[in-house]
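Changelog entry

Holo records now carry the ligand SMILES as an explicit input line rather than a separate metadata file. Below, a converted record for adenosine-5'-triphosphate, shown in the new format.
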Amino acid sequence: MPPGGGGVPQQGRGMSKQAASEHIEIDGVLLKLSRPNDTTGGWIGQREILMQLLACWLTVDASDLPLTPRLIGPPGVGKTQLAMAAAAESKLPLYIYQCTSDTRPEDLLVTPVLSQNGSIAYHASPLVTAMIRGGVCILDEGNRMNEKSWASLAPLFDQRRYVESIVAGITIPASPNFRAAVTMNQDESTFEIPDYILSRLQPTLGVGFPNKQDELAILQYHLPFAEAEMLAMTVEFLQRSHELRLDFSPRDGINMLRFALKRLAQDPEHPISRDKAWREALEHCLGEEALDLEAAAERRRRTLGGDAVPLGLADFFFDADDPLHPDRDDEDDDEL
Ligand SMILES: Nc1ncnc2c1ncn2[C@@H]1O[C@H](COP(=O)(O)OP(=O)(O)OP(=O)(O)O)[C@@H](O)[C@H]1O
Ligand SMILES: [Mg+2]
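Structure line, unchanged by the conversion:
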């Protein structure tokens, strides 16, 4: 692993030490750097995927280059957390760029800002700061960003390893220690990323739902003050939803449990029952459909038109609409 903190900034004339450490001059243009993200948090369980991500960032020879993987998976499964934990394990400073549908190329690279004395100051984005400092940049929710913005990163993610800021009129090379990962999830508000970009973001690492033991450890890690009984109920619920291919995630579990615990603690004189607090949290955090997982799974199966992974043994032997299927419900045909 490379050491952290490469690309020591040059000291600008007449600036204090503190201010100087936040600036760097490239081809005569003074850039103000972003601050690293100091959020901490480890990665629990699923060691293999963490090792795969760390392998992407290794260089095995002086002429080797690191890879920039795509981390994909359903919302709340831990993609961002995984990349943050990998940065911590690599002992590199972490920068996170939150991609949105209106991210412009200059937001991603260098933004001109009108300063108090009327001159223009150039601010380096978290991505460019990671390139200069030799840190990790997570391009979070990368598929929310449009093609134009992605195009500005094409040279960064191949052997060229630089970006060109049109706004500042400079080319910025990445430190050899610069590493990146892109997180993505599939929902309606995302763009198709063009193939020439996708081919630079490899490999694809799929983050899946944790097993029972890991999920319990994740909830305990985030809510160490939760009672064992409440934790167990939540883990049971999440594991059942994973079995049924519903998208309730560790994040959903953390949020609902947090709400349930607050409701329980609210009135020590007249405490509501654990069961009531838990069910109420389930309904208000995850929606009514969470109250009946089996029915939710059945609805989802129907909307997917039988594309969902088979749930019963008979599904392995018969198509969903096979008249010989033992669970076939003839009324379904009228509805479909
Ligand atoms: N293996 C894990 N170890 C520790 N915390 C985890 C793990 N998996 C999930 N979490 C926790 O679950 C929550 C959701 O994780 P995270 O925000 O990384 O999900 P995500 O996949 O990036 O979601 P989104 O697609 O919505 O951005 C966070 O609080 C995170 O810390
Ligand atoms: Mg995320």
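Spot-checked after migration. Residues 212-303 form one domain. Residues 1-17, 331-336 have pLDDT under 50 and may be disordered.
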